[in-house]
Amino acid sequence: MESVKQHIKSPEQKVLQTFVCDGCHQHVSQTELIIPSGPREGEHVIANYGCRCEDIKLAKAAEQNYSQLKHRKLMEKFNYYSLINESLKEATFDNFDAYDTNLKQAKKKVLAYSHSFDRKQSLLLTGDYGTGKSHLSLSMTKALMKRRYECLFLSLPKLLTKVKGTYNTKGVTEDELLNVIQRVDLLVLDDIGAEQQTEWSTSKLFEILDDRSGKATVYTTNLSSDELKERVNERNFSRMMDNTNVIVMNGSDYRRRNF
């Protein structure tokens, strides 16, 4: 039995020109083809053999789709695990109210930290109530997540309450939560020193800090260095200050300034 291929005519081909494509920089043969049979028999078709522009376009589209999917998954995980006060959720660098020189400098330093993000460098934001420490920290996580870094923002008092809650309820387990804390590129531990002081809380804080050793962590507190050291104990304070830059944010409470 004769092969079907023996009855299929190959199209006539004529090379019109060769050139280097401006888009993909490949050597291209522009070829004229004459369709030998079928409804379009005799039709002349121009084809550019060797051009990779369409392949590059498809690859870029696939890469963009993957990047968007990855960002969406990062945001879903951030929103699922993070523990953020409702009043902070819209915080960005743009809507941070740097109403005096000290806070303008603080914003400048935090922006510089996020622009040149180092996975091993940490920050401690300390100062008066209501000066925007949490606002700047959350703004930082949003900026870094746009660059596909995995971040987590946790109020320490809420985190310890959450961990305790995992002991008697279904859902997120303590191990799962601590694994996420350990893995992320940047962890924000907000409001350190506001948690209830117990032997268990001090021990759990050390476990968290130990897991984050050598990784970027941002701490916020309203306490001075001596107060913080007394509050979290010497060992935890030492872990917190390892490779950590301090930014002091003092001023009036901008949430109450208008009063």
From TrEMBL:
GO MF annotation: an example: ATP binding
Origin: domain of life: Bacteria
Residue ranges occupied by any IstB-like ATP-binding domain in the UniProt entry: 89-258
SUPFAM superfamilies per record: P-loop containing nucleoside triphosphate hydrolases
GO biological process terms held by the UniProt record: DNA replication
Pfam families assigned to the protein according to its UniProt record, in alphabetical order: IstB_IS21
UniProt protein name: DnaC replication protein
Organism: Lentibacillus salicampi
